[in-house]
Write a structure and sequence with these properties.
Layout: E1 3-9, H1 13-24, E2 28-35, H2 42-55, E3 61-63, H3 79-82, H4 105-115, E4 120-124, H5 129-137, E5 147-151, H6 170-174, H7 176-184, E6 189-192, H8 194-197, E7 201-203, H9 204-213, H10 215-236, E8 240-242, H11 245-253, E9 258-263, E10 265-267, E11 277-279, E12 297-303, H12 305-321
Parallel strand pairs: 1-2, 1-4, 2-3, 4-5, 5-6, 6-12
Antiparallel strand pairs: 7-8, 9-12, 10-11
The structure holds alpha-D-ribofuranose and calcium ion (CA).
Length: about 325
């Protein structure tokens, strides 16, 4: 049976790579895309999602989410990485026929999980505000969701600690209060953070190959990633990019690509370490313990990067053939 997912996303260049991966793979049924501010404003990110739906004939729903974090002041769109409108040098046109679901994203998430008890995997690859709002509005969804898979956080494995501050990853830093709510809720969470996403790399040559063999889909990935690759080259001295959001989809398709570590996870919500994610993975007792009695969640600590790259390449190339 195909795995039904809702993909909560801030589209975003690597978000587009992840959305197309989810749509491409035959084991996934992309039921809905819910948008959130982050890489782009909520208006631009939602238009980008609708653009992809029209351009690649998606059947999924699209629901527009929130434009700001729960408590902290908004960080603002990540223009330096994703461009003015989220899609780098491309600027998505206004949709001609696709439109967003009338419900806000958090309500769409609640209704869809309730209509499909035990079947929906909630995959979130942006700030976790929509998920936190859904939890606040209807905590019963925790027992009805199949699994929650997050791209976010950094736990220091493989020396990966942060990408927007020395100790915080962007999605968690954008809304640390929401992330702490999501990680401490009583539902099964798998966290695919920088510890593993920065261990996989789409080289410039790899993306060139997608362009030449992946038809219209590969060409779009190549076009949208030009700005992103310039950021990587100019700021990080790398010729290619890390595999952030597509890694969360790879986990859904084949969890065996990843090694996981179990234990409760908390988020630092203010001060210089705002957005720092910390997992307690020993059983030691302490007099004061803010992790105690929190549900054990799973954190990705290793990945078979070559198998992940092969999975992505094969999925995109096969999907591209549909548009010949
Ligand atoms: O830190 C990487 C994450 O931040 C990705 O989800 C990227 O799209 C941005 O949202
Ligand atoms: Ca993202």
């Amino acid at each position: 049976m195909r795995k039904k997912i809702i993909l909560d996303t801030d589209p975003g260049i690597d978000d587009a790579m992840a959305i197309l991966f989810a749509e491409a793979h035959p084991d996934i049924e992309l039921v809905g895309i819910t948008t959130v501010y982050g890489n782009a404003t909520i208006e631009n990110g939602t238009r980008n999602a609708l653009y992809l739906k029209e351009e690649f004939n998606f059947r999924c729903d699209i629901a527009k989410g929130t434009e700001k974090p729960l408590q902290r002041p908004p960080v603002g769109a990540t223009v330096v990485v994703h461009g003015e409108t989220g899609f780098g040098d491309l600027h998505s046109s206004e949709p001609t026929h696709a439109s967003a679901d009338p419900r806000p994203a958090y309500q769409y998430i609640i209704d869809t999980i309730k209509a499909n008890p035990g079947e929906i995997t909630l995959v979130a690859v942006g700030p976790l505000t929509n998920l936190a709002l859904a939890l606040e509005a209807d905590p019963a969804i925790t027992s009805l969701v199949k699994e929650v898979v997050i791209m976010g956080g950094a736990f220091g494995m493989n020396n990966h600690r942060g990408n927007v501050t020395p100790f915080a990853e962007a999605n968690i830093h954008d809304d640390p209060h929401a992330a702490d709510k999501v990680f401490t809720a009583n539902w099964p969470v798998v966290i695919i953070g920088l510890d593993v996403t920065e261990e996989s790399f789409f080289s410039s040559d790899y993306i060139d190959e997608l362009k030449s063999a992946g038809g219209k889909v590969g060409e779009f990935i190549w076009d949208v990633s030009r700005y992103y690759l310039r950021f990587y080259a100019n700021k990080l001295g790398l010729h290619g990019c890390h595999v952030h959001d597509p890694s969360a989809i790879a986990y859904v398709i084949n969890p065996e690509l990843f090694t996981l570590r179990e234990g409760p996870v908390r988020v630092v919500t203010d001060g210089p370490a705002e957005g720092l994610t910390l997992q307690k993975f020993d059983d030691r007792g302490y007099q004061t313990d803010e992790w105690k009695n929190m549900p054990a969640q799973q954190v990705g600590i290793a990945v078979d990067d070559q198998a992940l790259l092969a999975l992505y390449r094969e999925s995109i190339i096969n999907y591209g053939k549909q548009f010949d």
